């Protein structure tokens, strides 16, 4: 507890939890707004319910998982090219 | 002569050349006054302004100010001022001097109305920008050599293309070219190198993080956007640019996710933002070209802001590695806020500058019905929020307490960041300011309920993905590492291939040499020895020995 009190405010677990729960709430709200606001789209499929929400989520999870896989192939030691750190 | 020198670009170049001779206070004054004068000069110049001058029998156009070049020239001048303010405390004479010459050459290149003038300034930007990197110290030397090699190659391609074009058409005008004109592909490639097309891109991620905290800010503004301008001028509607640009938006963000050097993360995201502009050029409608110009304008500002904030962190905390940083928001509260404003702008949050410029390009893509490209751009938009919008501020200022306690950035840096942040919000809240100076008339309303909602859904759920991945421990941690990119091809593979080839060649030559000796020299020697009587006198013998020694001496020095 003492350590908590010394760590910067925004890094304390209860504070972080509160921020995360607020994000969940705002996410849910933004999808619900799809019922209230008509999105005028050029491309028909983009007008479907919650399209941007699920696309954003899937895109980012896919991006991170793919990058994580790429790291296995591409990662080398920091001094791989044998040059001084600029 | 005045036709050449009466140019806002030359104002900056002259200031840069004069700067090293001045004491610190005057240097600082010049660093602020010269760009301000250039902005004022550009602002009052009527459009179009054409200045022509004869040179070696060609009618050149050292200055052409029209609606397209104005946008780029203006943002170059504004960026020069902001960079000058940010580097005001720099004691070195080289960096600010090189920065002014570099910025001036970029500005003059954007105003160049013919290919010869463009080529000259194109090369000056290469050399001056290399000096900006070199100003960070001797350890940058290998990076600078690689950087120069690639930049000069771009210049050579431009020169070759321009010569072919001028010889076969007789015209020197730098206007719409397209790929089908003589030399068109060479010039396209020259612009493509500097615009960091996929596989031609690595100079950017290699060189930009090597410059000083202030130097990188300067570099981020000019070279690549000059290339975007050149593409928009010469290759609008060139369809191959659409897939090239789409790949550019998506490919670098995978690297950005796993890169540890936060300034290199920004270099990857710079590359990704250029992709949006390249797509805009490729579509080639008035809406998309407006989008490219607008996005270049806002991008220079928010990217400079992000590089400024990371430069301030590097300067104060002594490192810019995500694996070493964290929890800095208490030590650098203002820098944190400015960084978040830059992050919100690049992520295209409503009310921030990226939203009003990127929308033009995305809408133009949707109007064309190019749904695959549109989906790639949407994926890249989510991705850029993920790695630039969240990763950069999160790992530097939050994440966990790294234990680093440092001072806030110096006042001049804070003012520079504050002004840039204000510009990002100003453009985002009042897009008419930016739309009013675009090349074509704008009939576009970014702030509709549906548009704001769709963008917010995209961003919120990207943030949700980040949060879920962080809390489940799936998100890859920041690690000290080098990630192989295409530069591996010329930093490792090609040298290894050459070395192997050399060894094989050496062996081959040795073998041939031995055979030749056996075949030709030995029988002769036999003849010689078989010949009766004294052959060589002492004098001749001595001469031969001296010659042989001289030959060895030569070999010694030559090797």
Summarize the structure.
Chain A has helices at residues 2-6, 13-36, 51-74, and one strand spanning 75-76.
Describe this structure in words.
The complex is a heterodimer of chains A (86) and B (559). Chain A is an all-alpha fold and 86 residues long. In chain A, 62% of the residues lie in helices and 2% in strands. Chain A has 2 domains: 1-37; 41-76. The longest helix of chain A has 24 residues, at 13-36. Chain B has 559 residues and is mainly alpha-helical. Chain B folds into 2 domains: 1-233, no CATH class; 236-496, no CATH class. The longest helix of chain B is centred in the C-terminal third of the chain and has 44 residues, at 487-530. Chain B starts with a helix and ends with a helix. The model of chain B has no long low-confidence stretch (mean pLDDT 92). At the A-B interface, helix 2, helix 3 and strand 1 of A face helix 12, helix 16, helix 17, helix 20 and strand 3 of B.
